[in-house]
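Example record

The entry below shows one chain as it appears in the dataset: sequence first, then structure tokens.
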Amino acid sequence: MAKKVKLKELPELLLEKPNVYHIQESYLRQIALGSPLTAKKKRKSDVKATSAKWYRQKGTGRARQGERTNPHMYGGGLAFPPRPRRQVKNLNKQVRRSALRSAVLHHIVSDSAFVIQGKDFDGFNKTKDVNGVLAGVEARTINLVVLNDSAVWLGARNLPFVRSVTPEHLNVRDLVESEALVFSQSALDHYKDLLSLQNGAAGNTAPAAAPAADEDGGEE
């Protein structure tokens, strides 16, 4: 049976609001990382050819020529050719984590986040069983199912409307492109632990308190 996820089940998200800017930046960054590199052409140093001089420098009446790999020669390298590069904007860890939490929070606020109650869902490994469990979720075009058991992934991979990931691999792109977010009970518990660890690590980075002053009020 599927029920909607409430904010009280993820208290780590209660003090936050969905940051659309962080979601956008992280989404575009993930698309750029998955896109192919730009075109690549060979420079003079990349072309394989003999380094011997074509003909002698003087006495032929022709223009002097050097290596065959020069850009003006047929079969030579290009001058200032395009090189492979990827336009990726670097984001720090805090922004990336904020984008992920904001995307999950957006699904919860929009009533499109569900959790499958019970432990039976983690033992399914057949497509018809997984499809039967997901029938309780409202009709969606694409469902992002967060699982904690690789056996269930085997049963969900053949469903065209399902994307299945583990809590560790939950990402902004899948959250943005999916109309519903479905947790298994164990995956939701695991995700809570991950949020607690992140919040604990963030708390440990706070600056240390200043030492208390002596009661005497100064040095002797």
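Notes for this example: The first helix runs from residue 20 to 34. Residues 205-213 have pLDDT under 50 and may be disordered.
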